[in-house]
């Protein structure tokens, strides 16, 4: 199983833009942009906690398990 970030979906549901999210969470805009464009991006638990606080959800609500096949296009050189 792979872990997929749901930050983009949750932020859109709550009407929070990337700019507002990065400022309120004190996370770089580059990191937010990367998470939005690659939901399989490996981020830290600290960043996940900051984003969850701003979005008003638990950190667990920002991740979901998906079958490995869905993540196969993100595997580089056989590394996961």
UniProtKB/TrEMBL annotation:
Pfam families: HTH_26 (PF13443). InterPro entries: Cro/C1-type_HTH, Lambda_DNA-bd_dom_sf. It comes from Reticulibacter mediterranei. Residues 7-62 form the HTH cro/C1-type domain. GO terms for molecular function: DNA binding. It comes from the Bacteria. This is HTH cro/C1-type domain-containing protein.
């Amino acid at each position: 199983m792979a872990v997929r970030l749901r930050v983009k979906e949750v932020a859109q549901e709550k009407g929070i833009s990337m700019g507002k999210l990065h400022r309120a969470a004190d996370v770089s805009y580059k990191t937010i942009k990367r998470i939005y464009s690659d939901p399989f991006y490996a981020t830290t638990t600290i960043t996940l906690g900051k984003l969850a606080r701003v979005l008003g959800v638990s950190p667990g609500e920002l991740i979901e398990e998906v079958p490995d096949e869905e993540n196969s296009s993100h595997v580089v050189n056989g590394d996961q």
